[in-house]
Amino acid sequence: MPTAVPSNTIRTASAMPTAPRKVAVVGVALSDCGRVDEATPHALHAQAARRALADSGLGRDVIDGIASAGLGTLAPVEVAEYLGLKPRWVDSTSVGGATWEVMAAHAADAIAARRANAVLLVYGSTARADIKARRRTSNLSFGARGPLQFEVPYGHSLIAKYAMAARRHMHEYGTTLEQLASVAVQARANAATNPDAMFRDPITVDEVLDGPMIADPFTKLHCCIRSDGGCAVLLAAEEYVQDCAAAPVWVLGAGEHVSHTTMSEWDDFTVSPAAVSGRLAFERAGVRPADIDIAEIYDAFTYMTLVTLEDLGFCAKGEGGAFVEKGRLLRDGELPTNTDGGGLSAQHPGMRGLFLLVEAVRQLRGAAGEGQVRRPDGSLPELAVASGTGGWFCSSGTVVLGRG
Prior knowledge:
The chain is α/β, with parallel strands linked by helices.
């Protein structure tokens, strides 16, 4: 009598079917977010992971893969141990804010190929609390070794690099400060009904323009907030979906791309790596930008939203300013974007890319509460895109998700 094989055991190559499996997001959750003064980053990882698992309705024994970055000496080994997991598939890819879309792509490929069955993506950070408690300081640069050594002496901070790129777009295409400011105004409007958002009071274009200058042309409200918080996303193979507590959201296609690390090697300041990752994701999903109902886009600065919309194909290059200024990004706009308020108003504890996936899934499920987006006919959205950006437009990961 053969011994029964546990359901989460990965089959050997000789017994492995050749057809790839479909992959779904089956659980999503946030940890406590905003101002979290008493928790550690590890605790936020654990809280988000428990909540995502509960959201999925599955038992923890199905998790055989973990992806994590940004915490510990040997991420994700340290995080896995803290969570009491002993995964057989791991990913510690770290490419800044795009990390989580890239990890989601890797996890989906692994599950489709039967190298894993269920992969947990998990993140947590106390970036705000650490600065308030003087456990850390703000950093002016990412390092002074390797290629970066040729730029560090000139004092380029991360925000200065984004500001330079924004100025180039303004020079090249006539993009205005008012158009950039409208991105922040619409993000704040979307945050108004999000109970997890740090800032929900409305703002105006004039208030954005009149704020203290941080790095020309960015005033304070052009820049993301600094918060604490974490989140988790659980991806699983199609055979687990029938046991889940909520309707699945399917991973339809994904793409990734890195373009440069030094500004001198960036061919065009007005083109982000999303121009490549987005094209790949849409091609692999078999959809077009025009088919997308919701966009969740990394927005450490207002210019990131504008240029990523261009590069994903929602408008032509150079037309981002005109596209964003007509209220199109609002929850009831033509392309609801950053529907939770984004990094500009909701939360931004560091590598925010995983939050994009959480919000996209909630919207597709119809589980976004007062902030729920509906199509013109009243139905739930069918397709969403989440596009993360890392470094100073150094990397991009884009994922296309579909409902049911």
